Amino acid sequence: MRKRSTRLSMSAAIAVAGALAISAPAGAAPSPVSDPTAQTAQTPLERQVLAAGNGWASEGTGTTGGSAAEDANVYDVSTKAELLAAFAEAGTQPKIVRVHGTIYANTAANGSALTCENYAEGTGYSLEQYLQDFDPATYGRSQEPAGPQESARRLAAANQAKTIRWDIPSNTTIVGATPESSISGAALRVNGATNVIVRNLTVRDAADCFPAWDPTDGDEGNWNSEYDLLQVINKATHVWIDHSEFTDAPNLDSNQPDYFGRPYQVHDGAVDVTNGSDLVTMSFNRFSDHDKLLLIGSTDNTNRGDPGKLRVTIHHNVFENIGQRAPRVRFGQVDVYNNHFKVNEDSTVPFEYALGAGFDSHLYAEANAFTLPAGTDAADIIRRFKGTAVTTIGNAVNGKITDLRAEYNAAAAPADQLAADTSWTPTLRTQVHPAQAVPALLQNSTGPIFTAGGDL
User: Fold this and answer.
1) What global pTM score does this model have?
2) What is the pLDDT of residues 397-441, one digit of tens each?
3) Percent helix, strand, coil in the chain (nearest 5)?
């Protein structure tokens, strides 16, 4: 598994993975490496750091991940056991993890596949019985599910959670060794850690085997799933997510059945930043075929440590066939520029909105391109969730420069008007391109496109 050393045996990898524990965050000094866009030829992918001025993650000490790792802490992994063993063995020391091929999360310690039925064994859970017990026609819609089947569902869900939920430690760079590298089925977390880089990696289909029915959610009730593809949570800081892909494909929610007249949704967010986390840059990623994308701040309450935090930069990403939350913001100063939002005519994901202005949010959207099908109104790009202000400058809708805030306000009720946000102006930016140039600029430059260096 380790570079320039014998791979750990399967049994040793399992033993180390079983002892996985995430220690307290440890800082890392910035490295004087130049702009990553100019580094590819001279510095191996896994040794590159976030350039100064490249979004909120470059603030202060910057984000260097595991770029300073000693050779003993460079790992090549192709299985779940090897990946978790690498995280555990190096702890919070600078480390590089290069992912080869596809790593599957829903697997047992011996590598065999696990199914939803495996997680439910011994819990007493049965979807058929669950649907019978909580049918709104008999159970009603005024209270959340309670009883033996809901308790059994929670037990089964816990079995899956301990199998697929993996924490990335501080001072880690995890990269795809090739553009084809991927992690499937995992719910990755940067959980209270600091100085983490995720690059050149496809993360797909963190499907929840046991969505929860909540008849009190909205007018008709909803099925709610648990897992994000990547969570930045619990005061995590200095995180750079770059040239990666986040998708539900091929297990799309549109292929799931409806129960109680509502979609049986098995996916939650793509990348969520919550619970006092801060200083995140997302650049040159591809988000596709997913409903709920980027939730920044998960509650209007202030007891999660969110005020003054949740500072995120989102630039030069492609969002294709997505539904909502790109992003939805509470509290944070969030800079969204030079992204391409593209909804195809044949998209199976219903488009609801892109930019969500939530409680005390400070969303700054500049020079983004929106390619929308006929019948989709520019007024629908923004949605208000208790927010009071938003900045929109120089954005283009179907090639035409459009004042997104004005379009929203023209269609919104008087109580839902959004003022211009004059509270801040982003400064930590790379070059800002004209919105009309963005679709061509990003056509072949987002998602995993690199090959890692070293002994491959």
Assistant:
1) 0.90
2) 999 999 999 999 999 999 999 999 999 999 999 999 999 999 999
3) 20, 30, 50
Residue 429 known to be catalytic: no
Domains in the chain, CATH or no CATH each:
44-207+237-257 (2.160.20.10), 284-449 (2.160.20.10)
Q: How far apart are CA 201 and CA 376, in angstroms?
A: 32
Residue ranges in the chain modelled with pLDDT below 50: 4-40, 455-456
Identify the residue whose tokens are 């990666």.
244
For residue 9, give every residue at least 6 positions away whose Cβ sits within 8 Å of its Cβ, in sequence order, or none. none
Q: What is the pLDDT of residues 236-261, one digit of tens each?
A: 999 999 999 999 999 999 899 999 99
Q: Choose the catalytic residue: 199, 325, 328, 383.
A: 325
Buried b / exposed e over 353-386, threshold 16 CB at 10 Å, is bbbbbbbbbbbbbbbbbbbbeeeeebbebbbbee
Sign of CA dihedral 448, 451, 455, 456: positive
Alpha-carbon separation of residue 405 from 133, 241, 324, 409, 442 (angstroms): 46, 28, 17, 6, 25
